[in-house]
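Deliverable D5.2: sample structural annotation.
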Amino acid sequence: MLFEMDPLPLLEADAGRRAALQARIAAHEVGVSRGVVDPGLVARLTGWLAGVGRASLPNYVPLTPGAPNAHRVNRWDERSFVRANYHQFSFNPWNQDPFDVFRLMAPVFRLRNLLAGAPPEKYLGRAPEDGSIARMLFHFYPSGEGCMNLHRDPVGPHQAAVPLMVLSRFGADYSAGGLVLQDAAGVLRPVDAALAPGDVVWFHPQQPHGIETIDPGAPSDWLSFRGRWSGVFAVNKLQGEASIADAADLGRG
């Protein structure tokens, strides 16, 4: 189900390689870009985010022009298109941060745009485009409770492939649960055991996917930050914008 992708710079430069990649993703194969971010830098980033999570009061912040970067706790929040349990740390390109996350993650965003037929820098500026903006989201799923329902994401000019970055190590940071993707036969396949911190997986938005409960049965402690981190390279519509369809929640996997 998983296949090794060409390096991101090569894919960005070669339309033929991108077309071959698009065909495999459209067939619900799952690509892997290895070592996009150094594991040491991943550890520094997630350690900093855990400190923010412990010290900040979580807030729900609607996505509007100029919105601040934010920390949110989502515990089956009915305002979400897909029901889930996680901490979310959201970064918008008009704000700055100590890790300069949009520069750090730019190669992934550029390939994401190119696969959708968009210019490589689209949505990455300080002003929204077509009612949408790029966002870097970091999700933390706490052991004992963290999960996300199985769902499909919309396809359109903003998105033809979903890239997700793994930021924790299966078997060390957690030992059960994690990302699952439905294969062509309808079987849910776990993939985390084949991935390492800093790897990015790519799959089709309409391929059902979700996060199975992390370490089910473990004591739940939302401030210990024991569990699973991941990074989401998103293009999200602004509050009230109707040009992009909503994700479709398929319920618990």
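Annotation notes: The CA atoms of residues 171 and 193 lie 8 Å apart. The longest strand covers residues 132-142.
The annotation will be released with the project's public dataset once the embargo ends.
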